[in-house]
Amino acid sequence: MSEHLGERAVVLGGGMAGLVTARVLSDRYRTVMVVERDPIVGVTEPRRGVPQARHAHALLARGQQVMEELFPGLHGELTANGILTGDLSGDLRWYVNGRQLRQADSGLLSVSAARPALEAHVRARVLALPNVEVRERVTVQRLETTPDGGRVTGVRVARYEDAGEPESISADLVVDATGRGSRTPAWLQELGYKRPAEDTIKVDLAYTSRFFRLDSDPFGTDLAINPVATPGNPRGAFFGKFPDQITLLSLTGLLGDHPPRDHDGFLRFTRTLSPPEIYQAVRTAEPLGDIATFRFPASVRRRYDRLRRFPDALLVIGDAVCSFNPVYGQGMTVAAMEAAALSEHLADGEPRPLQFFRQINPIIDVPWEISAGADLGFPGVEGPRSLKVKLGNAYMARLHTAAQLDGRFTKAFFRVAGLVDPPQTLMRPRLVLDVLRTARRAKADPATRPTDELSDAPKGLPA
Ligand SMILES: Cc1cc2nc3c(=O)[nH]c(=O)nc-3n(C[C@H](O)[C@H](O)[C@H](O)COP(=O)(O)OP(=O)(O)OC[C@H]3O[C@@H](n4cnc5c(N)ncnc54)[C@H](O)[C@@H]3O)c2cc1C
């Protein structure tokens, strides 16, 4: 008897979620086919299907760990290729409420790789697997099912650029990893199933990014300078160091306060950020390439876990299930964790879709609570604010204030934000007491008091 669960699994979409999914399916299916609209083999530049790749991307610490399990030696391979890595809270300079958090090693890695480079390394590892193949430049049109619609049997695809003859690809399992624009909700409806309900948090966020060649060194030994958007300082940025004096500056503005796309406007926005060293560095730096913008209206969580009926042999993963506000850097990590959960799920035999969706629910819950909870701290973001959210945000503000004085809190925060430690670790009574005491001390000191408390005009808004 074959040890495989089936002859062929087909993964729709060759982005990060599709790649990690293909990796785990290759252990269980005789062959795995990745169907992707873009040309992707050997591609190391941003591509049409992943426009977010032109903006800062960080793989959270938990994502690093899972990726290393899925692709042993990946970290070594990245560093051997000149990609810079360092400690998430020891080698990155984080600013919250206009003040720098005290740096302290967390033991967790941060990789300073452009997203296309990271994806290219992961893709090369996946496509090197003997039973994985890619069909690129092909768009998925619809699912194919048994006559009663109870089981997915394959997909209908067509060449993308020249709209060639449609073709059927049969499959024992289809996994939708086509991202936020996934058509599974519509396909379900066409087949007579319910669409999943959607939880949304409207943030009206935009990223505007540009590469620069620096003529000064604002980083020293640090890997990045990141002012985090907070209600008092709503403008944020990710300013990451790459080899050869190259940097990527991604500006973020929410609730319609979008960073401009023209050079002068871009610089003006940069000037309003709390760490002055970012503006000082890019002011005289050489701009490289165009300015890229990405608009992100809302975080969307599709509640497949709440459906009662779902076709057999179909799964959904990655952004197609939940697309998080990107400023928290969670999407790739969640995709990797979901793929690891899929591997465990398949260890028990044939995929059971509704059970799988319930299995990945706790994986999504924590980052969703972190990102949606923090977003609801901005008065302009619509949504119900439970007591838990209000208390959580009030406590996090104190923790950040305390972290200006004591690196222990910076480390504890990033272990949770990096999805390594559960949020409850920040609620241990002893830590809470320490946080409150230290925050009080920091607030009494004008050198560490949050900038929004020093003046009526919040820093980070246009002058
Ligand atoms: C501005 C921005 C910044 C971000 N920063 C971070 C970060 O710092 N850290 C982090 O972890 N995450 C970040 N994310 C999120 C991250 O990019 C995604 O969560 C992650 O890449 C997983 O996406 P995915 O593979 O599910 O979907 P996608 O990346 O959207 O990939 C979907 C793939 O499917 C293909 N496709 C779509 N439709 C079809 C079709 N019909 N037929 C064939 N192929 C199709 C597309 O071409 C694409 O290759 C960011 C997102 C944005 C928008």
Structure write-up:
Helices cover 32% and strands 25% of the residues. Helix 1 (16-25) packs parallel to helix 8 (331-347) and helix 8 runs antiparallel to helix 9. The strands form four sheets. The protein has an eight-stranded mixed beta sheet, sandwiched between helices. A hairpin with a 6-residue loop joins strand 8 and strand 9. It is an alpha/beta fold and 463 residues long. It has helices spanning 16-25, 61-70, 74-80, 115-127, 184-190, 263-271, 276-283, 331-347, 353-375, 387-403, 407-417, 429-444; strands at residues 6-12, 29-35, 84-87, 92-96, 99-100, 109-112, 132-135, 138-145, 152-159, 167-170, 173-176, 198-213, 224-228, 236-241, 246-253, 286-302, 314-316, 322-323. The chain binds flavin-adenine dinucleotide. Flavin-adenine dinucleotide binds at residues 12-18, 35-38, 49-50, 52, 55-59, 139-140, 177-180, 207, 294, 296, 318-320, 326, 329-333, 335.
